[in-house]
Specification:
The complex is a heterodimer. Chain A is an all-alpha fold. Chain A has a single domain, classed as Helix Hairpins (Orthogonal Bundle). Chain A has 4 helices and no strands. In chain A, α2 packs antiparallel against α4. The radius of gyration of chain A is 19 Å and the shape is elongated. Chain A starts with a helix and ends in a 13-residue tail after the last helix. The relative contact order of chain A is 0.14. Chain B is mostly helical. Among the domains of chain B are: 321 residues, no CATH class; 384 residues, no CATH class. Chain B has 43 helices and 5 strands. In chain B, α2 runs antiparallel to α3, α13 runs antiparallel to α15 and α31 runs antiparallel to α32. The longest helix of chain B is centred in the first third of the chain and has 32 residues. The radius of gyration of chain B is 32 Å and the shape is elongated. Chain B starts with a helix and ends with a helix. The relative contact order of chain B is 0.06. The chains are: A mainly alpha, B mainly alpha. At the A-B interface, α1, α2 and α4 of A face α6, α7, α10 and α43 of B.
């Protein structure tokens, strides 16, 4: 039976592969950045799916789950915390990358990655 | 102690609060920014000193009061304290250097800068792999942001490439982290180490995905194009941070995490590091852009440290010392070099001659390069030494070869650069801003201070050995004095030290006494011409004293390490001396490369020699157990690069001929003997008489004979008087090599006689011809002639030396020849002997040529006002002549004690003395008798000539019929031009530059290979991403499925 874990796992890996394909084949700088965000998102989904434990709820202690029984009722909180941090970092990186792309596009009037080869060897 | 968590708190807190400052309060913000950097530097320094001086124990801080994995832990032990101190020091000093940019970009740059330094601190201290990921990302973002400080198209591109590459690397790391967490159920490094994840296949993959990104952060070849671009295009301060701070932090991360990978992981790290070291240096060969070249060098050095980390299982407890020593030198030198690049503001290597206008900066530049290439007494030398010794002990010869090859390649491009900056004149002044100079000088100061700690660590009880080094340092300090005073001080120091040294060895160890006399007394004599110099003669005295200090230390060295240190000091000093000549740039470069190649062969040889022995005393040469034949060959090659044996000789003619007039005798008459001294030690170690039939020794005999033949032949065909003398040295050293290779009593006696003889007559010749060059302004013999009338005293000196050199009775050369012939006949080396005898006859050709072409024949018009040689040149010449005369008349005074000394090694077939008469089984010889007979013969001949030529008349110089030359274009008709053309036609091919061409091809091969390899860096960001992923996949495949 296809369970939630497999779906998330599959989605994550698929997104990563798509992202890598984009990174390797697309010439447009913005598309390359999109490729990176796909890879990043794929990894995030992968992380969530690995931290998932069947039939448990989100690791938030409130009325539904009190602290004493949390250990038996919630999924592993660490991957969840990690994923939040990773998303924030991914955002920062993407933003800076796009800043660079804007600057490069302004400088050279082009978005093609092959046109930015003045540094080599 | 301030808890390490405050590093994070202070940096983050101030970085965020800086955001509130507007443009108007930049001044206050700047103060706050420096205060923050100072504060975090203070925290790490405080821990560092605490560990060193107060026996502080290491601490671990857990955030939020929880235990891992629910908290993050920061560890502060001695290694962390050292590394964070380094990072913060580079950070603070970089910020000082950066003052202009900080003013321009204001708080934005300050925030970025602080976050970068903080990020690097945390990745060093953290024990949590996810935290590591977070702060790696923070540092990468900050670093990429710094690329924007240079508002150029190129730096923006570099920043983008860097950002996207590190983003992909971090993505890999993230996958690794989540997989590791899945199998190891912790993010805490200590837990993961205990869990031994490599035991299961999936766990091994998880660890692979943790370690591989860490390796990729170190920019391994070939997945490192993005890093190189960053080094090249960004502001020099960013370069210094990348190279000194960021790489240092990343190396520490690898050191921290490497044990996760187990032995397989270590092997992979070692191989990838070694590959990076050699490949980067190979590709560095073709660089003409200073920034990018420094990038290649940085990546190479990081690769070397990576390799050391990977070799942990082999190196054991020595790993930290080796790795740290190399890292420290790299850290100080690279930061300094990048800052210098910022001060000079040029990336064209040939424009670095600007440094000449600021001697102190030039000194610092050379200091950094010398330290970086692993010269003693700087830390990286000791690191490399220990590395080679340990690898040899564990039988890892191939690793040694690899390391030394990489080091040599690095020296090629770095010393080419040194050559440019020492020699190419520039009128441009460099900007002298205090805030830019202070960091450079501070790091140079730290580097110099570290020398003291290293030497006292290795030789706590025998720092006396390093008195000569202190004297060299003194000469650097005294550079401001006029040349004449420095000359007096140098001679005084050398005299005092030679008295100490000879007093110590006389009667105790006459071999060392003999060489001490040649090195130091010869040295003092060759310093006398220096009194002629006016002004300061900047750079001469430290170099000359350094060479003589090296030679003196060579004598008193008691173990391999001391010997090698002395050898390298001597090499460095002589390089700096040789490069002073007007056209010496390429000759000094080739001298340096051959010397380094030889030194590395020696280093490997020393490593093998001490393997299996309890210590590193010089006596291990007598007890080589590990690869004894290869060791002997390596050592012989090392020593023979100095004696310029055929094949390794091509540096000599240019280096000796183009050197300054008073430097030529130093490097020719004296320096070459260092190689002879080394060879003698090797032969004694090999068992002297017992080694007589050793194939290596027989081969060396042949090599000596051929060197004599080719050297003498080539000397005969030179137009350049100093080149003639230089080639003649190759020939003479060929005799010496041959004589020692005979491994008999008489052979060695002849060899030592030649050593002493060559030291004196070659000094006289180079001084005499050097004086002629000074007076006439040319090296070409066909432009000279008739100088006997203008420089009679010089002529007498040169004539005297030539008679000695040619072995014509009655002078000392004949004693050598007589011994030599006896030895050859008794040894039975007839074939080789025939070659050597032929070479001896050829020596007459060049002897005649230099006498005739320079001093006889017609005086040239432009030389009518030429004066006699400077008195400072004549004095040492005549002192040496007196020495030769005493030896010639009373040879037993010298030969007897020498014979007694040799009899310790060769007790059989000795030379017998009967008063002043020497006896062998073949015949006898009495120096005094021979002298008398010769004098009588000359008297008869002269009388007969006077009697028969009473009708001869004097011919005026312009009497064309007798003058043997035509007035216009005299060089084409002058007899001295292309003299011996007939012989050249017949046997000239023997002296054709075949060997030079072979070395040229080797040189071209490496340059072309490097050029071809670097094409992989196409400049395309996308290719670089593919490199990273493909590199990871390939390494994964090799680990899991083999090659």
């Amino acid at each position: 039976m296809i369970t939630l874990e497999y779906i998330t796992l599959g989605t994550g890996i698929l997104l990563m592969l798509m992202g890598i394909w984009g990174l390797f084949t697309q010439k447009n700088l913005i598309k390359i950045v999109i490729g990176f965000t796909l890879v990043d998102t794929g990894i995030h989904i992968l992380m969530v799916s690995i931290g998932h434990i069947k039939n448990r709820t989100a690791p938030i202690i409130d009325d539904a789950v009190n602290a004493s029984e949390a250990a038996d009722k919630v999924v592993d909180p660490i991957p969840q915390a990690m994923v939040l941090t990773a998303i924030v970092i991914g955002l920062g990186i993407t933003a800076l990358m796009l800043t660079f792309v804007v600057k490069m596009a302004k400088d050279n009037n082009s978005l093609n990655v092959s046109n930015f080869k003045s540094l080599k060897w | 102690m301030v808890a390490p968590i405050y590093i994070v708190a202070i940096a983050l807190g101030i970085a965020f609060s800086l955001g509130f400052f507007g443009k108007k309060s930049t001044g206050f913000a700047t103060g706050l920014f420096y205060a923050a950097l100072a504060a975090i530097s203070f925290i790490s320094v405080q821990w560092f000193t605490g560990f060193i001086f107060n026996g502080q124990s290491s601490t671990e801080v857990f955030t939020a009061g929880l235990k891992p994995p629910f908290s993050i832990s920061l560890q502060m032990g001695l290694p962390e304290a050292i590394i964070t101190t380094m990072i913060n020091l580079a950070g603070f000093m970089g910020a000082v250097f950066f003052a202009d940019q900080l003013k321009k970009y204001g708080v934005h740059l300050m925030i970025t800068y602080l976050l970068l330094i903080m990020g690097l601190n945390v990745i060093v201290m953290t024990r949590d792999i996810f935290n590591l990921f977070v702060f790696l990302e923070i540092s990468s973002i900050a670093m990429a942001g710094m690329a924007l400080v240079t508002q150029e198209k190129k730096s923006v591109q570099a920043g983008f490439k860097y950002l996207i590459a590190t983003a992909i690397i971090s993505a890999l790391l993230l996958v690794g982290i989540i997989l590791t967490y899945n199998y190891g159920e912790s993010l805490y490094i200590n837990d993961l180490l205990a869990a031994n994840l490599t035991g299961i296949k999936a766990g091994a993959t998880a660890i692979f995905l943790i370690l591989m990104p860490v390796i990729l952060e170190l920019k391994p070849f070939p997945a490192n194009g993005w890093g190189l671009d960053m080094y090249q295009a960004t502001h020099p301060v960013v370069g210094s941070l990348l190279s000194a701070a960021s790489a240092t932090a990343s190396i520490f991360v690898l050191y921290k995490l490497a044990p996760l990978g187990g032995d397989t992981g270590m092997q992979v790290i070692a191989v990838l590091g070694g590959l990076t070291f050699v490949a980067s240096n190979l590709m560095g060969l073709k660089q003409s852009h200073a920034g990018r070249m420094l990038g290649y060098s940085s990546i190479a050095q990081t690769g070397l440290v990576m390799m050391v980390i990977g070799l942990q299982p082999v190196l054991g407890e020595h790993t930290l010392f080796i790795g740290f020593s190399i890292l420290l030198t790299h850290f100080l030198a690279k930061a300094g070099l990048f800052w210098l690049r910022g001060i000079l503001n040029t990336d064209k290597l040939k424009e670095w001659g600007k440094l000449r206008n600021t001697p102190l900066l030039l000194f610092v530049f050379v200091l950094f390069i010398v330290a970086l290439t692993g010269f003693p007494p700087f830390p990286s030398f000791f690191g490399k030494w220990e590395l080679v010794m340990q690898l040899a002990n564990s039988g890892h010869g191939w690793w040694i070869a690899f390391i030394l090859l990489g080091s040599l390649l690095e020296a090629v491009y770095l010393f080419r650069w040194v050559g440019y900056s020492l020699k190419i004149k520039s009128k441009e002044q460099t900007e002298q801003k205090a805030h830019k100079l202070i960091p450079v000088y501070l790091f140079a100061g730290i580097l110099l201070t570290s020398v003291y700690f290293y030497l006292s660590h290795f030789y706590p009880d025998s720092m006396m050995q390093y008195v000569p080094l202190a004297f060299v340092a003194l000469m650097f300090v005294l550079e401001f004095l006029p040349a004449i005073i420095k000359n007096i001080i140098s001679i005084g120091g050398m005299a005092a030290y030679s008295w100490l040294l000879t007093d110590q060895y006389l009667g105790e160890d006459n071999l060392r006494f003999f060489f001490a006399l040649i090195f130091l007394v010869g040295g003092i004599l060759t310093m006398i011409p220096g009194f002629r110099q006016k002004g300061k003669r900047v750079g001469f005295y430290p170099a000359a004293v350094m060479m003589y200090a090296g030679l003196a230390m060579l004598i008193s060295a008691t173990d391999l390490l001391q010997f090698f240190i002395a050898w390298e000091i001597m090499t460095l000093g002589s390089y700096l001396l040789i490069i002073r000549g007007k056209r010496s740039i390429k000759h000094a470069f080739s001298y340096m490369l051959f010397s380094l190649g030889g030194a590395f062969a020696m280093l490997a040889g020393f490593g093998f020699a001490q393997a299996g022995n309890p210590g590193i005393g010089l006596d291990v040469l007598a007890n080589m157990t590990y690869l004894p034949h290869l060791t002997a060959i390596l050592l012989a090659i090392g020593f023979m690069t100095k004696t310029a044996a055929l094949g390794l000789h091509i540096w000599l003619p240019g280096a000796h001929a183009e050197a300054e007039s008073d430097v030529s005798p130093m490097v020719s008459a004296i320096l070459l003997k260092a190689g002879v001294f080394g060879l003698m030690l090797l032969f004694i170690g090999m068992g002297a008489e017992a080694a007589g039939g050793h194939p290596l020794v027989i081969a060396l005999g042949w090599l000596g004979a051929l060197s004599a033949l080719v050297g003498n032949l080539a000397a005969s065909f030179q137009e350049d008087a100093k080149k003639l003398l230089a080639y003649s040295s190759i020939g003479q050293l060929g005799y010496i090599l041959f004589a020692f290779s005979m491994m008999t009593h008489l052979g060695w006696l002849a060899g030592l006689t030649y050593v002493a003889g060559h030291a004196s007559y070659k000094a006289i010749l180079f001084l005499g011809i050097g004086a002629v060059v000074i007076r006439t302004g040319t090296h070409n013999m066909y432009q000279m002639g008739g100088l006997i009338k203008k420089m009679p005293l010089t002529f007498i000196g040169v004539l005297f030396a030539i008679i000695t050199l040619a072995g014509i009775p009655p002078l000392a050369g004949f004693a050598g020849k007589w011994l030599f012939y006896n030895a050859v006949i008794m040894k039975g080396w007839y074939l080789q002997g025939a070659i050597v005898f032929t070479a001896g006859i050829i020596a007459f050709l060049y002897s005649f040529r230099i006498l005739y072409a320079v001093f006889l024949g017609q005086l040239k018009d432009q030389h009518r006002k030429v004066k006699e040689a400077p008195i400072t040149y004549l004095i040492p010449m005549f002192i040496l002549m007196v020495g030769i005369m005493i030896f010639s008349a009373q040879p037993h005074l010298v030969l007897k004690p020498l014979g007694n000394m040799i009899s310790g090694f060769f007790p059989s077939n000795m030379l017998d003395w009967n008063g002043g008469t020497a006896l062998t089984s073949l015949g006898y010889w009495n120096g005094f008798q021979v002298a008398v007979i010769i004098m009588i013969m000359f008297a008869i001949l002269t009388g007969w000539l006077l009697l028969t030529s009473r009708k001869a008349k004097k011919v005026g110089q312009f009497n064309i019929v007798y003058a043997a030359e035509r007035p216009e274009r005299p060089e084409t008709t002058h007899m001295a031009y292309n003299m011996f053309a007939g012989y050249n036609k017949a046997v000239g091919f023997l002296a054709a530059p075949g060997i030079t061409n072979i070395w040229r091809k080797i040189d071209a091969f490496f340059h072309d290979l490097g050029d071809w390899m670097r094409r992989i860096y196409s400049g395309n960001a996308q290719s670089y991403l593919i490199h990273i992923v493909a590199y990871t996949v390939i390494v994964f495949m090799i680990i899991n499925f083999g090659i």
